[in-house]
UniProtKB/TrEMBL annotation:
The keyword Oxidoreductase does not apply. It comes from Brevibacterium rongguiense. This is 5-formyltetrahydrofolate cyclo-ligase. Keywords: ATP-binding, Ligase, Magnesium, Metal-binding, Nucleotide-binding. ATP binds at residues 10-14, 143-151. Pfam families: 5-FTHF_cyc-lig.
């Protein structure tokens, strides 16, 4: 598939997923979020550092899992996005609902405390879990993001912390994507710089991906 065709297909997929998320009844979305958070908590068991995300409107929300982790003394790190740059990270030191919204996308962000590399190295690899949001994941673990390139620029094979992440994954660091169960698909258009997840966490549970 040519790069232009892949880009067009990704744009169409993004539009469909966003429309489906917006049309989901709030009560149904809240139930799915609660189920997802329970699966995130189980997946991240034993982690000393959980690198996750603060959900945007209509994005699968894992706030309950983040609060549960923080209450257990887990270091919870959330992304800080600035246009054209790799993600930075900040520690969640208080209730997530108290975080200010910042930047172009009004993402809930803590104060910056870590580069991506520092976040990955904050705990030993087997005690670190990286949870990335996505609009969809395929059965090889390839991710469809929002199109800004932040996660690929940061953690993809060619990203600033990509080579480090690859080494740490081989040493036991966990990487999973978060989405809705209907957003796990057979195949997605892909590029060499795309981040690959080892599993998807959804309201239905955990699905491991083949390499």
């Amino acid at each position: 598939m040519s790069p232009d065709c892949a880009a067009d297909e990704k744009a169409q997929l993004r539009a469909r997923v966003r429309a489906a998320r917006r049309s989901t009844a709030p009560a149904r979305a809240a139930l799915a979020d609660a189920q997802l958070s329970a699966h995130v908590t189980a997946w991240a068991a034993g982690a000393q550092t959980l690198i996750a995300y603060a959900a945007l409107p209509f994005e699968p929300c894992v706030d309950a899992a983040l609060e549960a982790a923080r209450s257990r003394g887990v270091r919870v790190l959330l992304p800080i996005a600035r246009p054209g740059r790799a993600l930075g990270f900040g520690a969640l030191d208080g209730p997530i609902e108290g975080l200010p919204r910042a930047g172009r996308w009004q993402i809930r962000e803590p104060a910056p405390t870590h580069t991506a590399a520092e976040a990955l190295l904050a705990s030993p690899a087997p005690s670190t879990a990286l949870l990335v949001p996505g609009l969809a994941f395929d059965r090889a673990g390839m991710r469809l993001g929002n199109g800004g390139g932040f996660y690929d620029r940061t953690f993809g094979p060619d990203g600033g912390a990509g080579p480090l992440l690859a080494r740490l994954r081989s040493a036991g660091l966990r990487v999973a994507g978060a989405c809705r169960a209907a957003e796990v698909v057979d195949a997605l258009p892909r590029a060499p710089w795309d981040l690959r997840a080892g599993a998807a966490l959804t309201e239905a549970g955990r699905q491991e991906f083949r390499a």
